[in-house]
Amino acid sequence: MNIFRLAGDVSHLVAIILLILKIWRTKSCAGISGKSQVLFALVFTTRYLDLVITFISIYNAVMKVVFLGLAYATVYLIYMRFRSTYNSESDSFRVEFLLVPVAGLSFLENYAFAPIEILWTFSIYLESVAILPQLFMITKTGEAESITTHYLFFLGLYRALYLANWVWRYNTEGFFDQIAVVSGVVQTIFYCDFFYLYVTRVLRGSGKMSLPMPV
Length: 215
What we know:
Order of helices and strands: HHHHHHEHHE
Subcellular location: Cytoplasmic vesicle, COPI-coated vesicle membrane; Endoplasmic reticulum membrane; Golgi apparatus membrane
GO molecular function: ER retention sequence binding
Radius of gyration: 17 Å
Helix content: over 70%
Membrane topology: Multi-pass membrane protein
Strand content: under 5%
GO biological process, one term: vesicle-mediated transport
Largest sheet: 2 strands, antiparallel
Number of strands: 2
Shape: globular
Family: Belongs to the ERD2 family.
Strand order of the largest sheet: 1-2
Number of helices: 8
């Protein structure tokens, strides 16, 4: 494991913890897309099915369990514990427009036509677009609380660090995972505009990140 992979995992973990703490402390999931969180839970579920058949390392196994647990804890808080604060009208992205193409692509483009491999590929493709309902929700409402933007920043940082991890591994090990790299690049592109707004508006002291509204 290299420093970029470790830093990416830490950034990913920080993002999810920030989100859960935000929900728990405010007792509200306002501004948070439940659909994105369900998609991320699905990502972890389909990716980590190998927990029961493959052991790589203690670190790997523990992180998989932690991410699974936190993902479902987030879904529980949004749809059960604080359901009355969830804004389903603003969280209106049609997730079937993501799930159907991703499922089809995972059958067509994979490394082996086997159930575990197809599900792993599905998780990689789905992760690259799972944040879209959240970004769509922010665009629709026109603003996001600073804690939500911090969550998105660390999530985007995780993807950027993983890109650095793949570059490092290619240069040091000759390892290149085309599916993961291309999907990671696509996902990072989705965050680029958000990163600009985060730096120019949130880090300069605004309590919320307001988006420019169309004239």
